[in-house]
Amino acid sequence: MLQEIQHIPVMLKEVVENLNLSPGACIVDCTLGLGGHAVAIAKQIGPQGLLIGIDRDEESIRLARESLQQESARFDIVQDDYRNIDKILDKLGVKKVDGIVFDLGISSYQLSSPARGFSFNSEGPLDMRLDQNSYISAYDIVNSLSEKEISTILRNFGQERWHNRIAHYVVEQRNKKPIASTKDLSDTVLRAIPARFRRQRIHPATRTFQAIRIAVNRELESLEIALEKCINYLKIGGRISVISFHSLEDKIVKEKFRHFNKIGQLSLIVKKPLRPTEEEVRNNGRSRSARLRVAERIN
């Protein structure tokens, strides 16, 4: 099954080079996904190295495990939210690590699965949970929160210009019939946005889906918490590498790195975020918005 899934890890060359990997290193991949970055890291750290993979998605973990089993490096995989990195490493008996990687957002594999409800491009249940055991889904948010609460989510997490109109249309629509599928939500958003503003470079529902997904999975909150905890587990000279895909994530990473730089714990390896090459963008459109920041523990 794994061979049938096309998965292209974003900015792979840049991540591997900037982690400054060496044989025997201990690396934490906080967003294991299908293991694209993890496999490349495993090749570099070799049989004496240890890769610790964290992910909330059970199916992604299963597929990543298949790939990693073909490499010589030792690995431990944990299904959890990376905000719990301290508990995860403590339980594994790991005091310090040589590198930490985050590839934020969701994978093309998750987007392409209609049953997961992440995409407006295919009809599926309104779910959007990274961890299928989580209590709250996109359905709950869209059909239960007040108009004001929905508007706030769309504004804060999606930077959606039409957040008030969309929230109003959502409430009107659900009063007639629950918004149960991705198509239901996408159609509601399209009706809410004035016709002359629907022809955009991105689909008009993009920001709404992003905002609700972030709210469902508490992604920005998890990122802030995890970055605060990560630094304590990096060895002196250890590096942390973060790929973000939208300005909300990147702002958190930039501010956290600057804070730890100011207090003398981190050195910024790249002053401005690295961007994918033109060739990568041509081969993998998903990489277009990627930004990579890297820092090194110095104290």
Question: In a nutshell, what does this entry contain?
Answer:
This protein has 299 residues and is an alpha/beta fold. 43% of the residues lie in helices and 15% in strands.
Which short descriptors sum up this protein?
299 residues, alpha/beta, 13 helices, 43% helix
Describe the protein in words.
This protein has 299 residues and is an alpha/beta fold. It is built from 13 helices and seven strands. It has helices at residues 12-18, 36-45, 58-68, 85-92, 108-111, 138-144, 147-158, 163-176, 182-192, 206-217, 219-230, 247-262, 278-283, and strands at 26-29, 50-55, 74-79, 97-103, 234-244, 266-268, 291-297. A seven-stranded mixed beta sheet has the order 3-2-1-4-5-7-6, with helices on both faces. The longest helix has 16 residues, at 247-262. The protein is globular and about 60 Å long.
